[in-house]
Amino acid sequence: MVYVLASAICSVLVSVLLKLARRFGLDVGQMVAWNYVMACALAALLLQPSLAPLRAAGAPWFALVGLGVLLPVIFHALGASVRHAGIVRSDVAQRLSLLLSLLAAFVLFGEKLDPAKALGCALGLLALLGMVWRGEHGRGEGGSASWYWPLLVFAGFGAIDVLFKRVAAAGVPLGTSLEAMFVLALPVAFTLAAWGRLRGGARFTLRNALGGLLLGLFNFGNILFYLRAHRALPQHPALVFASMNLGVVMLGALAGVLLFRERLSRLNVAALGLALLAIVLLTRGA
């Protein structure tokens, strides 16, 4: 379980770094771009993927290109969500995106919906609504941005997971698919960063590059430790999946409340509890 904890910590550190970006004068767009430079290098070095599956006739290039576009776009959305809605709500929205991938599994991949997962879906939707609801007091803090960015994170990460399942169903090894996604995301991310600069954003600086490389280290660490957790506990995938999601939600809540003094209403706290219960139900037998 050490790998699960390390993966969850890296995931939360991604959100913490995005939260601190503006405080330290860092441009999130440039950080996201440089993040993929680090991710590409680490994937090639540590996973040593074979590119042969990408030359096969049935290679899922449509899904891979979709991931290459969505990954940096949703990374930007995550940065905006952390800034406007906070770490707690953003991490819950990201983790509850498994609702969408689960629904896709029922509709697209023929998985059967059992009562526990049906209840998990219902509780997860209630938890999502409870987390993005700010009430009268919270409306002035972030405006509509405090709820639509988490919802975009929820939808975006759900779509990413569905596309990733398409790639896995095509038989592409994980290391190969990760390297392909990172390489495809790289020009998209730098295009978005350049567009931001042309619209009056920050200049490209070494400071932003270093911040982005650090972001990439945490981002890839999240993936690497998660893979190693599954390898260490091959007979317990549901345990790894549930522990990872629960760990991120709980550590994210602690980081948001203790480090950044994020305020949660009673409804938000109740929704956090529902989210934890929903994750347990949704990952039973996964």
TrEMBL record:
| The keyword Membrane belongs to this UniProt entry's keyword annotation | yes
Keyword set, alphabetical order: Membrane, Transmembrane, Transmembrane helix
Residues covered by the EamA domain: 2-132
Membrane association type: Multi-pass membrane protein
Q: Which Pfam families match?
A: EamA
**Compartments in which it is found:** Membrane
Q: Name the predominant localization.
A: membrane
PANTHER family, from UniProt?
EAMA DOMAIN-CONTAINING PROTEIN, INNER MEMBRANE TRANSPORTER
Spell out the family assignment given in the record's similarity comment.
Belongs to the EamA transporter family.
Q: What is this protein called?
A: EamA family transporter
